[in-house]
Amino acid sequence: MSDVGQSHEALVEAFRDSMRHVAATVYAVTTIDNGQRYGILATAVSSLSFEPPSLLVCVNRTASLHDPLERAERFCVNILGLGNRDVANHFMRPDADRFAVGDWLEVEGTPILSTAQSSLVCRTVHRHEFGTHTIFIGELLAAKHRQDATPLTYFDRNYIDISEASRRSGQKA
User: Residue 41's closest CA among 60, 28, 56, 30?
Assistant: First the structure.
């Protein structure tokens, strides 16, 4: 750690570089506000507790989903699988109707992707602002999971197939 005392800009760049090399599952976080569907791709999602079952989702305050999520009572965390890469690529297009690709249903007042590896519908129970983001804590209302799916994983600005790496090493995660 010889870089103690580095400039703020250097610290932020070192943090970005470090986080790019952490493999992360890709999530489509969705909600409905005033009858309109909203969604973004996210990797800053984590389980929080089993009692009660809950998640936290970190959303940049400049993201298109942020303000609708602030107002919404419910949201869904769709855990994307390898077969959902088309949905992920479409969600990355800034001016696209993000729900034009994929088979989207409405469950508990939120958009869920029927082909997602898993979909976790939550009721927003807490919001906390920190830095550039808001941390949304959701308590689970409904969940579905497909046993046959492999998560879509993001690493160093690319999607990777962790199932191939697992097969090559002979290990199961």
Answer: 28
Q: Contact at 8 Å (CB) between 149 and 76?
A: no
Q: Which domain holds residue 84?
A: 29-169
Q: Are 30 and 74 in contact (CB under 8 A)?
A: no
> In 25-100, which ranges are continuous DSSP H helix?
66-71, 85-91
Q: Which residues contact 112 (CB under 8 A, 6 or more apart)?
A: 30, 76, 78, 104, 105, 106, 119, 121, 144
Lookup: tokens for 107: 């469950």
Q: pLDDT tens, 20-72?
A: 777 778 999 999 999 999 999 998 899 999 999 999 999 999 999 999 999 99
Question: How far apart (Å, rounded) are the C-alpha atoms in residues 36 and 113?
Answer: 16
Under a CB-based contact definition with an 8 Å cutoff, are residues 24 and 154 in contact?
A: yes
Distances (CA, A) of 117 to 68, 99, 104: 25, 17, 13
Q: Tell me the whole-structure pTM to 2 decimals.
A: 0.86
Give the H/E segment covering residue 143: strand 133-145
Does a structural domain hold residue 17?
A: no
User: How many domains does the chain contain in total?
Assistant: 1
Q: CATH code at 65?
A: 2.30.110.10
Q: How many residues does the chain have?
A: 173
